[in-house]
Structures are given as structure tokens and as C-alpha cells.
Amino acid sequence: MNKRYFALLWLLAFPDYSGAPRASAQNDGSPLRVSVVLVQLSVAVTDNKGNYVSGLKPEDFVIVEDKIPQKLATFEEGNEPTRRLIDISSSNSHSSVQGAGKAGSPAVSTLADTLTGIPGAQSGGSNVFVLFDTSNYMYRGFVFAQDSIADFVRSLEGVSKVALYSYSRNLSRVAPLTPDRSNVLRGVRNTVAGDDAALYNCLLLTVKDAAQLTGKKAIVVFSNGPDNASLVPPEDVAELAQSTGTIIYMISTQQAEAEPVSTAVFERMSKATGGKAYFSRSWRDEKQAFASIRDDLAHLYTLSYYPQANPNRGWRSITVKLAAKNMQKYRIRTRDGYRLLQTRPSGAGWQPTNVESASQSPSGTQ
């Protein structure tokens, strides 16, 4: 178990695997910083046939966190502009943890409040990270996968920026987050198949990049096989994505589906973050999966709120419902909670002060 926590801390502290010197964290006695928490939710609403329900209004949604009713701060439907519902500056008076701000009390925040440093990171808009499996699992279907990803990138509407990352044993930021689709498409064509697959290591680093962004953000993973080289367990990746409001969509192939463990992990991870998992048996299925994700992103409701006073400093559960009785028949898909993470001021950026609590899965899976 200790090895697991050390691996998570090592990956977060040294995301580029370069071995270059990094600024060190301050001493353990340094004060902790207070950050106001803004919780963001991407919510899909569908009927019993799977059709998206549009035209809902802010008052149609009821959000409860740890059985405490919440008040929406912003609201966005699909690709429409974000609507501010309350004066956000006045919300700074809300304390997310009882006692926060008092002398000697720890600060807590979501990662979106504390991580900085990725070029192009900014507030607002919709941002998509494509994580492409370029491991040796991809030799047979590599060209077909490139075509599917290229079509997906071209078809994205209402998305502010797109990034293309690839992974085998290491993560490669082929095309950092950019509004320039042509740059991403060039990156797709320049990728080559390589080594073993360290999916969860590289997905964790991608989630960390996405965590700096506010607004709707998603990671679309294309994987052609199981993970055979990671140090980080998938439960850690899923919880970090949940706590930062990052949706994970998984597109995998029949080869990965043949391994029950990978199938279960992919489904569990995507569901925990409000995304979906797809298992393609042909290149046509791959294209259909990408099209389904594109439609899902275009129909999501993006809600945010500042939590009411809550003494819970660990995992906070979230329930989203529709207020009207005639809407109870609709289905809601979103993440079911998040974990507050303590932070310290540091030249190295975000530093977890409690690695153990950040490594435990709320669903009980190990």
C-alpha cells in the first residue's frame, strides 16, 4: 500500500519524467492556503429512449451535497454562453469548511483552484483532451484509429480548444491545448506506434492538466489494449477526475474487451466521472463511438455552485435531481462527488498534504 501512495505522489510531483530539477515544496511547518471552492458539474439528461432532453432551466435542477441543498452560481446548456446566476464575488464569504481562514486551520480546495502552469489554460469554454494509445497494441489498427480521431477533431463544434496527447510507456503532449484544429490534425498524422501501455500513469497526468481549467472539460481516451506498465491504480485516476470535474470517455477495441478486468475498469472509471465507455468491434464502431461522444458534449448542462458551510473535509457526495414531478422519468448522468484536497504554497505548484486520503476510492473498489 505504501508503494501505491509513493507512486501517486511521484507522478504528480514529476509529471514529465525528465529528471530535471524542480522547485521543492516548503517545509512541513509552512502555512496552508485558503481557497474558495467552486464545484462544477457536467450533467447529461436523457429520456427512457436515450434521447437528450434540452430546454431545461436552472430552476429545474436540485443539487444536494452531503444532504445540504446548494444554490447554483452558473448555468450553461450545451454550447450556449454561460449564465451567471449569483454575484460570484459575494460568494467568497461562504466557507467550504467550518473554521477555514482561522489561524492555524488548514486550507482546502479543489485542484481547479490550485493548479497552474499549463500553457493555454484559462477559464470558461469547452476543452477536450484526446489521449491516443500509441503502444505496441496499436500496430494493426493504427491507421484506422488515426482516421477516426481526425474525423472526431474536425467535427467538434462549440469546443474552445482541443489537445492531442499520446501514450505508450510515457505521455507525449503531441499538440497542447489549442483552438487551431489543423495543428491537432498534424499531430494525429505524426503519431507512431511504440512501447508498452502505461495508460493509467498517462491518464493521471492528463487529468492533472485538465484540472486547471474551469468550465466543461473532457478527456477522450482511445485504447486498443489493457494497461501493462502503470504504477498508478485506476481508482486514483478516477477519483482525481471526479474531484476536478473532468469527464472521461473511454473508447476501446475488441482486444481490450476480451480482458474482463480492463472492461470493468474502463466502465467503472467513465461512469464515476459522468462519461461513457465504448467497445468497438470495427473501425466503423470507432467512428460511431466518437460521434456519440461529440453529441454528448454538445448536450451537456454545465452547472456550478459554491458549497454551503460543511464540516466534511474528505469525500463529499453529490446528488442531482430534477424538481418537477413530470421530470422524474428522465435519467441524469453526472459525477457523484468530489474530495477536498489540502494545499500548500509551493514553487512546484500543487502539493498534496494527505496522499492517503487522495488515494482511496469512494466506491470502495481497490
What does this structure look like?
By secondary structure, the chain is an alpha+beta fold. The chain has 2 domains: 39-117 and 300-359, no CATH class; 126-297, von Willebrand factor, type A domain (Rossmann fold). It contains 9 helices and 17 strands. It has helices at residues 2-13, 111-114, 142-155, 181-190, 199-210, 234-243, 254-257, 260-273, 283-299; strands at residues 39-46, 61-65, 68-69, 72-77, 83-84, 108-109, 126-133, 161-167, 171-178, 216-223, 247-253, 277-280, 301-305, 315-322, 331-333, 337-339, 341-342. A 6-stranded mixed sheet has the order 9-8-7-10-11-12, sandwiched between helices. Strands 5-4-13-1-15 form a 5-stranded antiparallel sheet, with helices on one face. Helix 3 runs parallel beside helix 9. The longest helix has 17 residues, at 283-299. The radius of gyration is 20 Å and the shape is globular. It starts with a helix and ends in a 24-residue tail after the last strand. Mean pLDDT is 78; it is low at 5-36, 89-124 and 344-366.
